[in-house]
Amino acid sequence: MTYSDVMTLLLTFFVVLVSMSTIDSKRKREVFGSLSATFSPNEFHSPTTPVSKENKVLEKAPGVMNDLKDMEEIKNKILEEDLELDFQENKNVQILSIQNDVLFRQGETELSPKGKALLSRLAVYLMSVDYPLLLAGHSAGMRDEFGTSFEDEKNSVELSPTWLLSLKRVQSVYRFFVSKGVPSNMLQMEAFGKYRPRYDMHRAFERQKNRRVDIVLDKRNLEWAKKMTSLTTDTPVPENFSFKDFEFKLTMPPQPQKNIDQSLGDQNMRGTK
């Protein structure tokens, strides 16, 4: 065997090794990405792509998921009618963002007539979606929410007032969707206050855009939805719930009754309307 033959064989051997290692690392990224998304639905390893009229291509998830209905119709409606919505997506996740200015008047937690009209249109499409949806409430700082005259009373409540505000707003959206026929067992709620900003917190204009409610669809949560739906039937409810090798207790400790409206009002919020 000549020297060139030996070098060719060695090169071929190393190419095979590199190819095998690349496949393994890809599989590891998929596993870790799926686990991370389970506990942090607003943080994705694959970047989301804003939807515009120049960018209409949706990368479909593989397999049977292509036959299930997601928020594609809403995306097309945004493109057709230039609705006041922001839509971003990647292979597994779709995020529909609605600015709080559209849904609520300044400093309020009840939906405005304009907000109700918009959510009524969205509910028609969301009722037919086959995936579970996460409603995530976000707010900015209290002066961005209530005006520069707002004065924060330090240590007046245990919870952050921005978190309480985002919670009350996302609850309003949840209740409205349920009243319009969106299945409650397909909806989750989370409130993040000012602590999950999407835009720059150092610029006033950018901070305003952080005031939003996100509707998040994660195609990897479909199995979770099936299990949660089965829990709503008349079958006996087990004490534990297994999800992706994690065990969760279904028996909840008693929760103290607390009027969140009163807690929010106790902040002595003095904002302009």
TrEMBL record:
PROSITE patterns found in the cross-reference section: OMPA_2 (PS51123)
| Polar residues bias: start-end ranges | 257-273
Recorded GO cellular component terms are:
plasma membrane
Region Disordered, annotated ranges: 252-273
Q: Where in the cell is it found?
A: Cell membrane
The UniProt keyword set, sorted, is: Cell membrane, Membrane, Transmembrane, Transmembrane helix
- Gene3D superfamilies for this protein: OmpA-like domain
**Domain of life of the native organism:** Bacteria
Q: Which residues form the OmpA-like domain?
A: 91-221
Q: Say yes or no: keyword Transmembrane helix present.
A: yes
Q: Does the keyword Membrane apply?
A: yes
Q: Report what the protein is called.
A: Chemotaxis protein MotB
Membrane topology per the record?
Single-pass membrane protein
**Hey, which family's this protein in?**
Belongs to the MotB family.
Q: Cross-referenced InterPro entries, in alphabetical order? A: Bact_OuterMem_StrucFunc, MotB-like_N_dom, OmpA-like, OmpA-like_sf
Quote the Pfam families the UniProt record gives.
MotB_plug, OmpA
Q: Which PANTHER family match?
A: LIPOPROTEIN YIAD-RELATED (PTHR30329:SF21), STATOR ELEMENT OF FLAGELLAR MOTOR COMPLEX (PTHR30329)
Main localisation, per the record? membrane
